[in-house]
Amino acid sequence: MSDASNAKTFRWWNIALLGFTTVWGLNNVINNFANQGLAVVTSWILIMILYFVPYTLMVGQLGSAFQEEGGGVSSWVKMLSNNKLAYFAAWTYWVVHVPYLAQKPQIIMVSLSWLFKGNGSFIKTASPLVVQGASLIIFLAFVWLASKGTATLNNLGSIAGIAMFTMSMLFIILGVSAPFITHVQIATPNMTDIHTYIPKFDFQYFTTISMLVFAVGGSEKISPYVNKTKNASKEFPLGMIILAVMVAVSAILGSFAIGMIVNSNHIPADLMANGAYQAFQFLGNSFHVGNLFVWAFAITNTIASAAALAISIDAPLRMLLGDADKKFIPKSLLKKNKRGVNINGYKMTAILVSILIVVPALGINGMNDLYNWLLNLNSIVMPMRYLWVFFAYMMLAKQMDKFKSDYMFVKNKYVGFGFGLWTFFLTAFACILGMLPKMNMAQDPSSWWFQLALNIITPLALLALGLILPAIAKRTNGDMDEA
Predict the structure, then answer these.
(1) CA-based torsion, 265, 266, 269, 271: positive or negative
(2) Boundaries of domain holding 276
(3) Would you place residue 332 in the very low, low, confident or very high pLDDT band (cuts 50, 70, 90)?
(4) Roughly how many angstroms between the first and final C-alpha of the chain, as a whole number?
(5) Total tally of structural domains belonging to the chain
(6) Are 74 and 86 in contact (CB under 8 A)?
(7) How many alpha carbons lie under 13 Å from residue 333 in its C-beta half-sphere?
(8) What is the pTM of this model?
(9) Strand-pair partners of 229
(10) Cβ pair 386, 427 in contact under 8 A
(11) Is residue 7 part of a domain?
């Protein structure tokens, strides 16, 4: 059985397809188009070459070097540095899911609104306090559900993932072909002019990079498959490069498709929340199938979000409490109920996410601003876990003689360290500049400052809590300190 499981059966196309379904989704196209318009086409090309390709190839070498460690980022850090840094890596990986968990109930409500009402009025008319109250109820219901086991939702999530991939491909095919088949008018003028696609590299532009970084991150999930790849030194990088091409083509064609449906020079304020549904509604009307595509996308998005919500309450917490050195974690957090669930860990998750659901509604005016802010917060916080991937790669480059791997991204330790440093710097730069709110300050100064304060305080508070737990553990764990 072990021989079968270790067989090198993966080929480059398996790696590319697996990576694509892991990393990519239609909302990545919508959200970045909302930030940059059609100029995002150039941004996609730059982010692929300067960030995504080296990122994925570094992950390949790390996964190959530590195949017996199961591919976890915290285990890489542990092998390359020490237990304390490994704990912080595990903590970061868990804590960045807090804003992610806070937004999923909003996404579910928007999906259900489109499914039953057939329009996007919910995001424009709903009161932030009412929505966040409902979000809190949905979230706490899923905490309870996750504590009972998530096997059914996990299976539904896999089905929804395939459906979401299909909907993304359908969107690109229909969006690009619609003007030629149905002769609808193209929304963005001058789409044949090269200047339409050139970004204005000003300060405002650099505040939107975090959303691009957020969109292409997460390929470390593919690392366990490096050593299951036939002829890994050749086929794994080929698979990763094909993955980058697939993502780039999807991003560029998807952006073209949205540009044909939405005027790039007059982007609606609710595009991040409603854009995918509006686009599918437009395509449904163009191809004379009514709201069929809208219903399909709404059902897919609801199931996928529900599954992701339940699984993301449990899986990152399990990784934190399972991988990290126990002397850094208070003994009370390790307590399990009869179903093997870390019940106090669930309570900690529930408290942090509930705070992040309730507090913003007190100072952000309008449901649409609240939705966009929380999405932007995710783009600031989630890439913080990628920093540990690049830190691990820099440490691996320094110790290249000690840790051998079947697949090598670069063989020169100084060049390797340079790649790690570059991607680390770009990620940190994107996260810091991403903290600036994406709304017009003059229109609502108090809301702008409130969002800025939350964007700075939230990641700092989440990381600082990771410093407090080892101090509590030192005082409360007693004999565990000797372990």
Answers:
(1) negative
(2) 12-477
(3) confident
(4) 34
(5) 1
(6) yes
(7) 21
(8) 0.88
(9) 10
(10) yes
(11) no
